[in-house]
Amino acid sequence: MFLLSFIFLGLLAASSAQASQGDVLAAGTVYQAGTYINHPKYGTHPSYYGNPPEQVVDINIGASSFDDDGMALFAPEDGTVRVVYDNTNAWGYAVEWENTAGTERLFMAHLKSIFVRGAVLAGEQIGEIGGTGGWKPHLHIESSQGWVELSGRHVLPPVNPEGHGAFYLSKGPFARLPLRK
């Protein structure tokens, strides 16, 4: 009986886990994340959700921002994708993903392309990272939670905006689901 209770609690904990921003990249992807809080050149980065500037994150995958162009962007868990901007302003192509439970939304901007609108499965490719909105290729991402979690680690205080910030290892999907036709 004790073993069954332990297994049930483990399953319950796994099903209530929150999405994390680093899980939108393929498993094993090394990336850097930084904020633009008090950046000497760019100032403070705007927020889609009204989060404080240290909770607004830009993700860079390669040594050059152009290495990010065309990198796959995945749904971190089952949810819904809605297109927020269609390259009509400084966000470029942007989506808002919401988990099925309705407890978290992720805003992801500067996309090169968007493949899915509506319901998505965990690991399904949402689109590709790009540089729309007048920016070099990178992923702007923030959570409606008001805190930043990257690959399972809460990030406080804000990471250094110079040199693209601290390094992380994505725990995202291992295998791509086929793209929708």
Discrete helix count: 1
Average pLDDT across residues? 80
Number of structural units classed as domains: 1
Helix content: under 10%
Element pattern in H and E: HEEEEEEEEEEEE
Brief account:
The chain is 8% helix and 32% strand. It is mainly beta and 181 residues long.
Structural overview:
The chain has 181 residues and is mostly beta strands. It has a single domain, classed as Glucose Permease (Domain IIA) (Distorted Sandwich), CATH 2.70.70. The chain is built from one helix and twelve strands, in the order H-E-E-E-E-E-E-E-E-E-E-E-E. It has one helix at 2-15, and strands spanning 30-34, 57-60, 72-74, 79-86, 93-99, 105-114, 118-120, 125-129, 139-143, 149-150, 153-154, 166-169. Strands 1, 2, 3, 4, 5, 6, 7, 8, 9 and 12 form a ten-stranded antiparallel β-sheet that branches. Strands 10-11 form a two-stranded antiparallel ribbon. The longest helix is centred in the N-terminal third of the chain and has 14 residues, at 2-15. The model is unreliable at 1-17 (pLDDT under 50).
How are the elements arranged and paired?
Elements: H1 2-15, E1 30-34, E2 57-60, E3 72-74, E4 79-86, E5 93-99, E6 105-114, E7 118-120, E8 125-129, E9 139-143, E10 149-150, E11 153-154, E12 166-169
Antiparallel strand pairs: 1-2, 1-12, 2-9, 3-8, 4-5, 4-7, 5-6, 6-8, 6-9, 10-11
